[in-house]
Structure formats: C-alpha cells, structure tokens
C-alpha cells in the first residue's frame, strides 16, 4: 500500500490544468495504484492525480458500487436534468456544501493500459465523474457554488485549522452548467 499525502486547497497544483497522459507505462500503473490506496485510506469517492501533486489527467473513483479509473477522461451530459446535493473534496477536508451538477453523464477515456473505457453515471456517480474531471482542469467544486454559498465556504475554509492563509483562487470551469457555475 502506497498512501500519498493529499494536496490541500491553496496548493497551486490544484489550479493547474493537468497534461494528457501519453505513456501508458509502469509509472502510470503505479500512479493509479497510489491513487487507489490513498483514496481508500481517506474514504473518498474519487481522487485525481493533481490531488497527489501529479499533473496528469487520471483519476480513480468508487461510489454507488462502481469503481474504476479513467485516463484522459472527457464527459458529456446525457440530458438536461440537474441535481443539487452535498459535495465535498479530500483537498478541502471536513467541509460539504450543496453543489449543482448534471444528473446523468457519460465519461469516456482509457484504462491504465490504454484501452478505451466508457462509463455511464447517474446521481452520485455522475457527480463524482464531473468532480474528478474538474480537478484535471484545475477547477474545484467551490467554483461551482452559488455566490452566497461560495462566500460562506471561503469564510469557513479561512477559519479551518489546515488552511495556510494563502490567497484562494476561484476559477471558471471550462464545462459550464447551462451557462452558470
């Protein structure tokens, strides 16, 4: 088991778009294993490589009885249905806020061997696939909160024991939800 430290909100790697994976090699398989071990150790539903300080487009997920990993993922909404629900992040420990996401998505990418993968997700799995893909784009779920909730979230984060007092950066997602966050 290789549990790695998780980068916390304020670390610039979390705001930097990750590079596409081009080599499906032993190093990638080791990264996927580290993501799994760390995600399971921390009790997360998903974990993206930038959260371990690695700027590559790969994440693991385990929710609603479905688990796997995606390399170079892209997702599309299946329909216009949305969901509001509690969302948290291992890089923002101890906090959860209501966040709007698509209810049904299809994510496509590759496995650690370069073979194509497609996963359909609804509800929690859809939320997870969108959340982790956002990480690969340098976007945090805080960026998707409505203005009042985001302001409250930032106040709470600034008061947390783990926040280092840096200046938090908010970013607009390249995957708009019907033109809004």
Automatic annotation (TrEMBL):
Ranges annotated as spanning the membrane: none
Q: Which UniProt keywords apply?
A: Hydrolase, Iron, Metal-binding, Protein biosynthesis
Q: How is the cofactor bound?
A: Binds 1 Fe(2+) ion.
Needed co-factor(s): Fe(2+)
Which one of the record's GO molecular function terms can you name?
peptide deformylase activity
- Catalyses which reaction? N-terminal N-formyl-L-methionyl-[peptide] + H2O = N-terminal L-methionyl-[peptide] + formate
Supply the HAMAP family for this chain.
Pep_deformylase
Which protein family is named in the record?
Answer: Belongs to the polypeptide deformylase family.
Record's NCBIfam families? pept_deformyl, PRK00150.1-3
Protein's job: Removes the formyl group from the N-terminal Met of newly synthesized proteins. Requires at least a dipeptide for an efficient rate of reaction. N-terminal L-methionine is a prerequisite for activity but the enzyme has broad specificity at other positions.
> What's the protein name?
Peptide deformylase
Species of provenance: Actinokineospora auranticolor
User: Coding gene?
Assistant: def
């Amino acid at each position: 088991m290789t549990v790695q430290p998780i980068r916390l909100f304020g670390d610039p790697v979390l705001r930097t778009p990750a590079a596409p994976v081009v080599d499906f090699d032993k190093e990638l398989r080791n990264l996927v294993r580290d993501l799994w071990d760390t995600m399971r150790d921390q009790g997360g539903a998903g974990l993206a490589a930038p959260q371990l300080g690695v700027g590559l487009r790969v994440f693991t997920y385990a929710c609603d009885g479905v688990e796997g990993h995606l390399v170079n993922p892209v997702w599309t909404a299946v329909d216009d249905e949305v969901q509001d629900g509690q969302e948290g992040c291992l890089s923002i420990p101890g906090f959860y806020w209501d966040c709007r996401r698509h209810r049904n998505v299809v994510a496509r990418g590759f496995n650690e061997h370069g073979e194509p993968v497609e996963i359909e997700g609804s509800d929690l799995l859809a939320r997870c696939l969108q959340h982790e893909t956002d990480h690969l784009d340098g976007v945090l779920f805080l960026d998707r909160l409505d203005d009042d909730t985001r302001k409250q979230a930032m106040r709470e984060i600034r008061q947390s024991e783990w926040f280092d007092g840096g200046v938090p950066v908010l970013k607009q997602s390249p995957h708009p939800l019907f033109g809004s966050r």
